[in-house]
Automatic annotation (TrEMBL):
Pfam family, one: Phage_capsid_4
Organism: Sphingobacterium psychroaquaticum
Name of the protein in its database record: Phage major capsid protein E
Organism domain of life: Bacteria
Length: 295
């Protein structure tokens, strides 16, 4: 057994978590520049996010000097990163020998897929508003809709973002599978959705939104309220399309911790599992929206 077995596996799994089974709706969104504080007892990962709420007054054609001074009074937001843990996996001595990438990838694939599946589902759920407000518009889409109906609601969402003066550059929309499929029945919208035909992924622009097709979006009730994360959706609850503004997204990857039990004379296998910290959330409750199916 190589002495560096635990270190080699942890390093490879850390790499796989950021490169495989990832959700493209977060592509290009940078990590928050915030120091991670790790609790020495619980390992809880915490960060402080600066809130850019301060906007200085702008003087036009000023003739009065000295210019008045304004104090900078931005606040901060304390955030605990979400913790994702896998159950232990038994790795035989034969599987572990050499610790080659092929063997590590094969044995750890289930851990990586499970963690990334849950963390990206939690991410898109967090970016969806809980309910309608002037700063978090939730647009109703009547049942039995057509491609044109879906597009009109996307335009309505664009209008709501316009009223909030959300910058046009950086608006994103993750389409619910049913909404995407409705749009794909129209040649006009299908061409817009599959701008990158080689990848086969939804990757285009509609009504000024960069569109994505991640299928793990949040459920909404027919009354327009978001179903709690991991709650069992009701018979009439449907997955919603979620819109957000890139600069209002906070994303941070915390520590990856590997738990490892070496083989013994009676249990000749390695046991290992992982704990991973990660968070995505809107920095402020604004410039986020959704399109849901009403009754």
């Amino acid at each position: 057994m190589p002495r560096n077995f635990p270190e080699a596996w942890q390093s490879r799994v850390r790499e796989l978590l950021s490169t495989t089974h990832v959700a493209d709706f977060l592509d290009g969104i940078p990590e928050l520049d915030a120091q991670i504080m790790v609790d020495p007892v619980t390992d809880q990962n915490t960060i402080h996010i600066p809130l850019e709420t301060f906007t200085p007054d702008v003087l036009i054609n000023n003739t009065t000097y000295p210019i008045e001074v304004q104090d900078h009074d931005d606040g901060t937001k304390t955030v605990n990163l979400d913790k994702y843990q896998t159950k232990a996996t038994r790795i035989s001595e034969d599987q572990a020998l050499g610790a080659s990438y092929d063997k590590i990838d094969s044995a750890s694939r289930g851990h990586v897929k499970a963690i990334n599946r849950d963390k990206y589902k939690k991410a898109i759920h967090a970016l969806a508003p809980a309910a309608h407000s002037t700063s978090t518009p939730v647009i109703a889409l009547a049942p039995n809709y057509t491609a044109e109906d879906v597009y009109k609601k996307i335009v309505a969402l664009k209008g709501a973002f316009d009223k909030m003066e959300v910058p046009a550059e950086g608006r994103r929309l993750n389409l619910a599978p049913d909404h995407a499929n409705a749009l794909l029945t129209s040649e006009k919208y299908s061409a817009a959705l599959y701008a990158d035909k080689q990848s086969g992924k939804i990757s285009g622009i509609l009504a000024g939104f960069k569109v994505y097709g991640y299928v793990g979006g949040p459920y909404f009730t027919t009354a327009g309220t978001k179903v709690a994360f991991k709650a069992v959706p009701g018979a009439t609850d449907k997955v919603a399309s979620v819109a957000f503004y890139e600069d209002n997204v906070g994303k941070k990857t915390g520590i990856l911790k590997q738990y490892y039990d070496a083989p013994t004379t009676t249990n000749q296998a390695n046991l290992l599992n992982y704990r991973h910290y990660f968070i995505v959330l809107p920095i402020k409750q604004e410039a986020i929206g959704a399109i849901y199916e009403s009754a």
